Amino acid sequence: MRRFRVLLADDDLQMRATTNGLLETEFDVIHMVSDGSSLIEAALRFAPDLIVTDITMPKMNGFEAVRQVQRSLPTIKSVFLTMHGAREYRREARRLGAGYVLKTSVREELTRTIHAVLQGAG
């Protein structure tokens, strides 16, 4: 079975490590970055199947970074992993065709949401 390639973006080192630990049994985490600009550079360089990103990051927020990646690589899927529960954030994620997981439920929901997004259920 093919393992999907994931790019992970979060400015919190501990959150990156935790998320990587959750994903590494099912996915290949090919690169991790800590800001939106680096997310774009890494996506263009590595062309992952999926980006898991926070929204609030230095240099550029996750929404804008994903928009820019989608312009060049429209087949890359995305999941936002965030502390923001506000409806407007969820709506923006939906507009981008992305999944949405709160950090408080990362262990219960992240891999399920990733599979749904990869199968086209955003």
How far apart are the termini?
Answer: 22 Å
- Strand % is 15-25%
**Poorly predicted tracts of residues:** none
SSE succession: EHEHEHEHEH
Describe this structure in words.
There is one protein chain. The protein is α/β, with parallel strands linked by helices. 45% of the residues lie in helices and 20% in strands.
Which descriptors apply to this entry?
five-stranded parallel beta sheet, 5 strands, alpha/beta, 122 residues, 5 helices, globular
Brief digest:
The protein has 122 residues and is of the alpha/beta class. The chain has helices at residues 13-23, 36-46, 62-72, 87-95, 106-118; strands spanning 5-9, 28-33, 50-53, 77-82, 99-102. Strand 1 (5-9), helix 1 (13-23) and strand 2 (28-33) form a beta-alpha-beta unit.
Give the SSE map.
Blueprint: E1 5-9, H1 13-23, E2 28-33, H2 36-46, E3 50-53, H3 62-72, E4 77-82, H4 87-95, E5 99-102, H5 106-118
Parallel strand pairs: 1-2, 1-3, 3-4, 4-5
